[in-house]
């Protein structure tokens, strides 16, 4: 059984941004960009703690906040839903943290005035095959270690990952809900391991590039 702390990320296409001033409390009925769909529901970065001061709305992956004149300025963040990765350097480098709820003081993550790039943690993949980028997610598998590279979100049992072109490709994971069993062969056969809430690499449990099926785990099978 693997228990690891919440960790880092996955890339998405840029979906747009807008800068403006905000009142002390962000009202999503007023500030959400109506043209935005998916991602993590969008966020607002606030220059001051407790959701106050000047703000910038982010609707998708933003690799460099300096272009919005908001580099190293954020002290709090409003999330509509889902989880976002906040990084201390541009292009999602440096120290990164996953934030999954509105946070009145980013110093709780040691990110006060220390965010240079951010992106949503969600998969916008092949919708015709059941991956619907569910907000909040359940399990996300990443092609590379440390929650990087191409990713796929799982919210239901998958007997064969080859149908999603992700067979034996996962190197790390992020779980935002539930407990999951991953197996080295299709149809939940071969050696299986249980993953619980959090994030981590698959190499320590010998499942790196070795997962072919996955399902929700509710106790002993």
Q: N-to-C terminal Cα separation, in Å?
A: 14 Å
Using only C-alpha atoms, the radius of gyration works out to 18 Å
Whole-number mean pLDDT: 75
Write the CATH fold name of the largest domain: Gamma-B Crystallin, domain 1
CATH architectural arrangement of the largest domain:
Sandwich
How many individual helices? Answer: 1
Order of the strands making up the biggest sheet: 1-3-2-4
- The percent range for strand residues is 35-45%
Question: How many distinct domains?
Answer: 2
CATH classification class of the largest domain? Mainly Beta
Number of strands: 14
Structural class per helix/strand content?
mainly beta
Indicate the percent of residues in helices. Answer: under 10%
Low-pLDDT residue intervals, each spanning 5 or more residues: 1-40, 123-136
Task: State the shape.
Answer: elongated
Largest sheet: 4 strands, antiparallel
Order of helices and strands: EHEEEEEEEEEEEEE
Determine the CATH superfamily of the largest domain: Crystallins
Domain Beta/gamma crystallin 'Greek key': 82-122, 178-218
InterPro entries: Beta/gamma_crystallin, G_crystallin-like
Signal peptide: 1-26
Protein name: Beta/gamma crystallin 'Greek key' domain-containing protein
């Amino acid at each position: 059984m693997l228990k690891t702390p919440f960790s880092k990320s996955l890339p998405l296409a840029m979906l747009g941004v807008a800068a403006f001033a905000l009142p002390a409390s962000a009202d999503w009925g007023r500030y959400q960009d109506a043209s935005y769909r998916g991602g993590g529901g969008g966020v607002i970065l606030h220059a001051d703690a407790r959701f106050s001061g000047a703000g910038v709305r982010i609707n998708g992956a933003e690799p460099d906040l300096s272009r919005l004149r908001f580099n190293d300025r954020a002290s709090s963040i409003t999330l509509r839903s889902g989880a976002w990765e906040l990084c201390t350097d541009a292009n999602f480098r440096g120290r990164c943290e996953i934030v999954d709820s509105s946070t009145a003081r980013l110093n709780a993550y040691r990110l006060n005035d220390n965010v240079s790039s951010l992106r949503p943690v969600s998969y916008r993949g092949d919708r015709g095959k059941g991956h619907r980028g569910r907000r909040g997610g359940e399990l996300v598998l990443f092609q590379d270690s440390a929650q990087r590279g191409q990713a796929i979100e799982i919210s239901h049992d998958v007997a064969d990952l080859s149908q999603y072109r992700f067979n034996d490709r996962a190197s790390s994971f992020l779980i935002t809900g539930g407990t999951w069993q991953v197996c080295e062969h299709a149809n939940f056969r071969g050696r299986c391991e249980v993953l619980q809430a959090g994030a981590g690499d698959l190499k320590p449990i010998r499942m790196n590039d070795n997962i072919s099926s996955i399902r929700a785990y509710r106790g002993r099978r």
